[in-house]
Amino acid sequence: MNKKFSRTYLYMTIPALALFFIFHTYPAIKGVFYSFTNWRGYGSYDFVGLKNYFNLFKDGRALDAYLFTFKFAIVSTILTNIISLAFAIALNTKIVIRKTLRAIYFLPNVLSILIVAFIFNFIFTHLLTNFGTAANIEVLTRNILGQPDLAWVGVMVVAVWQKSAFTTLIYLSGLQTIPQNLYEASSIDGANSWQNFLHITFPLIAPFFTINIVLAMKDFLMVFDHIMGLTGGGPGRATESISLLIYRGGFQGGEFAYQSANAVLYFVVITIVSFIQIKYLQKREVEL
Amino acid sequence: MFRDRVNWFALFFLIIGSIVILFPLYLTISVALKTPQELGQSVLSLPTGFHFENFIKAAKMTNYWRSFKNSFIITFGAVSLTLLTNSMVAYAIARNLDKKFFKFLYYYFISAMFIPFPIIMLPIVKQTSKMGIDNQWGLIFLYVVYGLAFNIFLYVGYIKSIPRSLEEAAIIDGCGVWTLFWKIIFPLMAPINATVAILSTLWVWNDFMLPLVILSEREDMTLPLVQFVFQSQFSTDYNLAFASYLMVMLPLIFVYLVAQKWIISGVLRGSIKQ
Questions:
Q1: Is the pTM of this model over 0.90?
Q2: Three-state DSSP class for A80?
Q3: Where are chain B's structural domains?
Q4: B64-225+251-272 in CATH: which number?
Q5: What share of chain A has pLDDT > 70, as a percent?
Q6: What is the DSSP letter of A164?
Q7: Which chain A residue has the Cα nearest residue B175?
Q8: CB B17 to CB A111 under 8 A?
């Protein structure tokens, strides 16, 4: 009886294990394998040891991609969280049409990032330049997506606009776990709103803060769709993210092995960043 | 006391925010309904008539119904298969976590969540084209397999909360594991199934990167991918482009309007678990 049971449990899982290995683990291992070769994606190849990795550290294009991705991800994560927390606090107060507002705030989360990026592309190219000309703001008279030092701001706006929907919802659910009598007690003690936020609200939503920071950062480090819809990595290579570089170099540039090495490095970097964040933020949760 | 009053400042702040959120959508609808002449006069004004011919033209140009069908088949196929298979795998794992093999399986699937797609991207494209599944069926299959990592995590957490006493009673009645799962456990998993269905639908319908790298034939393309391919052909014909974008977003916007409450609570249930 018992044996028959455990065999059925195996039948339930073995196919999934096999398929997951063939289509996820095996390609990942292959990626690592190719990173030690000089394969171009076709033809024959030789082993080159760690050469791809050494070259990565000397490659200006790769360095630029990492710098851009991190700059974009850090600034976007901070902005997304500040904006979302402010909206969530406002949504959590006593207001009319609260359900409708909540529905509006979550709407961007169901939209395709690529399409949103196309729409913002139009806004930046036409509306914003018209506005800049009319309002006589020098920077905005030219399309920001066409300016190497400003194009990343456009990518950031789209990323924050879209991601805030999800982040706001998580904060809102966190705020709803805080018992109201805490605020009543503190108002008897004469605390103002800012003190309430600093000493009650923020400490009590610490776990939600952790989720939001880690998820947003991870998503933004993988940025791809936003850029494909806005700049295609340009102008020049000003907004070429790491994902985009791996995609371009790997499929179109004949750098299959080299970009595999880049992907391995990227994986290590993302893992370290997530690990540090979780460790640091959870320690903070405990201390609070 | 402060909290008992309607907070007008918060409301004002939120309405400003809503305008920022709704503006791009308003713009999309209004441009999609205008003629190029109207657009030339003013971008922001309301359209004077309803130029549905933009939609008809855009649908014809991008072969909308074909890519709609592709997106629909892929989303529907991937989501239903995900629900049927992932829940079963998770059940077997959740009920055997005391055994070494199943514990290993659990951590094996979950740790895959930390592996970024680009590391798999280059080899999987070679692999799928070699196996001849660089098409819709291959995509459905990949979504179901890749979904395992996160879904097992969600399902196992949920199944743990279902008391075992139900199953024990059924076993005494002579019920096998298969019957037990499909007849008793699967129906009990409705709330978490809804969450998985919602998250998978949002992911698969809107996904751009996997179809971009996997699909090789034009007639297999999904809606977002087609917009990308046509981006240069739309060039300055913004009315057509925006009509086309709107048609890509409308199915999910419609579903969202109808099932907004469930979608929000479903997404919440999925993310708080993390």
A1: no
A2: helix
A3: 2-41, 64-225+251-272
A4: 1.10.3720.10
A5: 97
A6: H
A7: A5
A8: no
